[in-house]
């Protein structure tokens, strides 16, 4: 069976850049350790997953619908000088991918790469196996029988499937956006409802089935402190869901890339 590897480009770059033991420069004094880490990590991921097709997606430098929805969204990600040193290496990474004949795309539409990855999973996941390489837990909502998430950590790499999400959170992957809307997400600067942690959110989602049902039936929540917290934060929780739920409406543009592959011969 064919297997598509989708790599969250900026996520892998940041991970490998921060994981390098020291800053490395070339003979011209240009930083190259991000490039070295990215290419090295990518090669290991390819060997682990043995895909028949590959696409690497990078976020573009633009605003998107989520930042318009909430000014606080990812406002905690101040990369500063480190970020400048990191992202100037993108051109070298693109050159390396061209040399390796690996398809990549920088998203220029007013969406995030996450939504394009979601679209790929929606289009191709019905027919082939898909592995998404990323540490972004939002991708857990895409997991199903054909879609899994690879969290690359060298020998400690983890493949996240349906059982992984059930064991870790006590919910189904398709409920992850509802669940995460309640708990919030510190990495994206999304604040959840006070007093609602992982265990409480799982209980609520399993009891009511979805975030919308939790909000509709909030008066049925037995614990007063949790009920009051949900009532105080209804509008925030609705916004959270819009921030966390991945969109799959970019299918028409990306279904054209049916030739995505490792090399030209496949």
Secondary-structure element order, N to C:
EHHEHHHEHEEEHHEEHHHHH
Specify the biggest β-sheet: 6 strands, mixed
| Proportion of helical residues | 40-55%
Q: What gross morphology would you assign?
A: elongated
Discrete helix count? 13
User: What is the CATH homology-level superfamily of the largest domain?
Assistant: 5'-nuclease
CATH topology of the largest domain: Rossmann fold
Q: How many domains, as an integer?
A: 2
End-to-end Cα distance: 14 Å
Indicate the low-confidence ranges by residue numbers. 252-266
Alpha-carbon Rg, integer: 20 Å
Give the SSE map:
Layout: E1 3-8, H1 9-19, H2 33-49, E2 53-58, H3 65-69, H4 80-87, H5 90-100, E3 104-106, H6 113-124, E4 129-133, E5 147-151, E6 158-160, H7 162-169, H8 176-183, E7 184-185, E8 190-191, H9 198-208, H10 211-216, H11 224-232, H12 234-244, H13 251-254
Condensed summary:
The strands form two sheets. This protein has a six-stranded mixed beta sheet with strand order 3-2-1-4-5-6, sandwiched between helices. Strands 7-8 form a two-stranded antiparallel ribbon.
Q: Tags for this entry?
A:
disordered C terminus, alpha/beta, elongated, single chain, two-stranded antiparallel ribbon, 13 helices, DNA polymerase, domain 1, Rossmann fold, 6-stranded mixed β-sheet
Description of the molecule:
This protein is of the alpha/beta class. Helices cover 45% and strands 12% of the residues. It is built from 13 helices and eight strands. The strands form two sheets. A six-stranded mixed beta sheet has the order 3-2-1-4-5-6, with helices on both faces. Strands 7-8 form a two-stranded antiparallel sheet.
